[in-house]
Amino acid sequence: xxxxxxxxxxxxxxxxxxxxxxxxxxxxxxxxxxxxxxxxxxxxxxxxxxxxxxxxxxxxxxxxxxxxxxxxxxxxxxxxxxxxxxxxxxxxxxxxxxxxxxxxxxxxxxxxxxxxxxxxxxxxxxxxxxxxxxxxxxxxxxxxxxxxxxxxxxxxxxxxxxx
Length: 163
Known about the structure:
Structural class: alpha+beta
CATH architecture: Orthogonal Bundle
CATH class: Mainly Alpha
Oligomer: single chain
Strand content: 5-15%
């Protein structure tokens, strides 16, 4: 599956882990193995992608604010849960329909913010993550769609770094 935004091109794939696959061997191929599932996150043409997103400091300031949001929410909850999985789900639901061949789909206009899409059963609970990201969007002036997808990428990288 490919997610595309103005800021990143990401390839996400989920497939069962092969017997004998270790986290270390998967990491060498840019994959995460957790709970018997292999999860891949790859960013392509990041220099070009970032040039398209204007002056937003995605890998610096925006990333730091997202990481802080994740850490603050985990601390606030105090029960070992966090917003990370919901941010990945938000990225999936916002961008999962992008078609590379037709060059359409995805979160054109971030329409998940509005009815009826925001209230569809598949999008239930994502309003929490969307609301949590609103101050970051307002601070940097980036598009909602790019921020949602980038937040999912940040979580994926955090998972990779803690594997």
